[in-house]
Amino acid sequence: MIRRSDLRQHETPRERARVAAELQEEARQLTETAMVAAPSPATRPPVPALPHGNGHGNGKTKKKQNGNGAKSELGRTEAECTLAAFDRSFADRPGSITLLLNRASQLGAMGRYAAARADLEQALALEPANITVRSALGIVLLRKGLWADAVPHLRRVVEVESWSPTAWFYLGEALNHVDDLDGALAAFARAAEIDPHHAKALYGQGVVLDRLRRPEDATQMYRRSREVAAR
After folding, report:
1. Euclidean distance between CA atoms 94 and 122, whole angstroms
2. Sites in the chain below the pLDDT cut of 70
3. The whole model's pTM is what?
4. Within 13 Å and on the Cβ side, how many CA atoms surround 153?
5. Exposed/middle/buried for 205, CB within 10 Å: 0-12, 13-18, 19+?
6. Full set of structural domains in the chain with CATH
7. Whole-angstrom distance between the N-terminal and C-terminal Cα of the chain?
8. Mean pLDDT estimate for the chain
9. Considering only CA atoms, which of 161, 163, 188 is closest in space to residue 177?
10. What is the pLDDT of residue 81?
11. DSSP states along 161-218
């Protein structure tokens, strides 16, 4: 979320450039734990139960602590155990779009974007019309800094889900990074038109307007973004 302290009046080009850099970094963090259009927790299938114990004794799992938090007796973190559960389920249900999506989401949350991309590309090959898969793939590509690769996927998303301000915002971010400034400005503007309270989309317009050497218009957008975020 954009903080009020980050949205003060940007009077100088240096200040606006700093804020623009902060926005870009913030956008990279948006999918730290989730991806746009990924299934909501309510629609996700339950994670398969993990076996307890080692097959001997009473089946209780011993825990040990280290600097990274609780781990199982095999030394695996909770995230690793969840990923292992998805792996086992996928072995029984190869080609499951739902499992591929959920495993990719888990991999993305763990910062393993190359593996997440592989799962999503496999899912897209199995079901090219699945817009949820395409959305998730576009976001993973953004996370990897592969802006040009993300653009066609995000364009397709906004064609199908033209009502989504978040999809338009991500398209604007990708287009800004490939220097399609007119396209980026239009995408950010569309996001703000759909959701007038989308402070990041207003902020993004300011970034692009600065790059287009329109400082007065950029300052106006920064001000609008600040006002929306303060409400």
Report:
1. 11
2. 1-76
3. 0.65
4. 27
5. buried
6. 1-31+164-231 (1.25.40.10), 66-146 (1.25.40.10)
7. 13
8. 76
9. 188
10. 84
11. -TT-HHHHHHHHHHHHHTT-HHHHHHHHHHHHHH-TT-HHHHHHHHHHHHHTT-HHHH
